[in-house]
Amino acid sequence: MTTIASNLQQVHERIVTACTAAGRDPQSVRLLAVSKTFPAQALRAAHAAGQSAFGENYVQEAETKILALTDLRAQLEWHCIGPLQSNKTRVVAEHFDWVHSVDRLKIAQRLSDQRTPSLPPLQVCLQINVDGGANKSGVPPAEALELARAVAALPNLRLRGLMAIPEPAEGFDAQKQLFLRARAVYDELRDAGLALDTLSMGMSADLEAAIAAGSTMVRVGTAIFGAR
Ligand SMILES: *Cc1c(COP(=O)(O)O)cnc(C)c1O
C-alpha cells in the first residue's frame, strides 16, 4: 500500500471513531483531500486509493493540476477552498465543482455570471468568520443570513452551506466551542428556510472536534499527503 493510501485509511478511521463518539452516522461526513502544494501524481495516488474530492487553495496551481488530470475529470470533484479575489473568479467558474470561500456578494455574482453554461451549477459554501478578527476572511455571523439569501437567489450557483476555519484552540473542548459557533449560524440559516446540507469544517489537527460540532465535510491535507 502506498503511504497516501495508508494515510487515507487512517483518516477514514479517525472519521469513523469521531462519528461513533458523537453518536453520528459515519456516512454523514465527507472527506475532502486538500492537495495544495502537492503534484498531480500525489492526487493520482489518492484517487487510486478511492479518493475523489480534492481541495485546492491557489487557483493557478489548481488549474495546472486539473488540466494534468483531465483523463480523470469525470471521476474527480474539485473544491476551491482558498481566499478568492475578483480577478480569479473566472478560473473557478470554469474549472471547479465547488467553492467554499465565498464571503461577499460581488464574488458570488461574478462566479454566477462566469459559470460555464454547459456545466452544472457551481456548488457554494459561504465562509463564516467565527473568531471576529477584523482582518480575517469570512462573513461575520450577523451578516450571514442576508448574504445567504442573496447568493441563493443567483442563477448558476447552488448554495450548499457554510465553511469555517477557526483559529487553532488549545484542546478538544475549546476547538469544539469555536466550531459550534459556525454550527449555530448553520442552524439559524436552515431555520430561516435555506436548504443547506454542508458544514465544511475540521482539518488534520481538529477534525474530531469539528465532527463533534456537526461538520459534514472535513478538509484534510497534512494527514493525507504529509507536511507542506
Ligand atoms: C490547507 C488547508 C486545509 C488543510 O489543512 P491541514 O492542516 O493540512 O489538514 C484545510 N482547509 C483550508 C482552507 C486550508 O487552507
From TrEMBL:
Annotated CDD domains: PLPDE_III_Yggs_like (cd06824)
Keywords assigned by UniProt, alphabetized: Pyridoxal phosphate
Record's keyword annotation contains Calcium: no
Domain Alanine racemase N-terminal: 8-227
Pfam families, A to Z: Ala_racemase_N
Positions bearing N6-(pyridoxal phosphate)lysine: 36
Listed InterPro entries: Ala_racemase_N (IPR001608), PLP-binding_barrel (IPR029066), PyrdxlP_homeostasis (IPR011078)
Family designation: Belongs to the pyridoxal phosphate-binding protein YggS/PROSC family.
General function of this protein: Pyridoxal 5'-phosphate (PLP)-binding protein, which is involved in PLP homeostasis.
HAMAP family: PLP_homeostasis
Record's protein name: Pyridoxal phosphate homeostasis protein
Species of origin: Variovorax dokdonensis
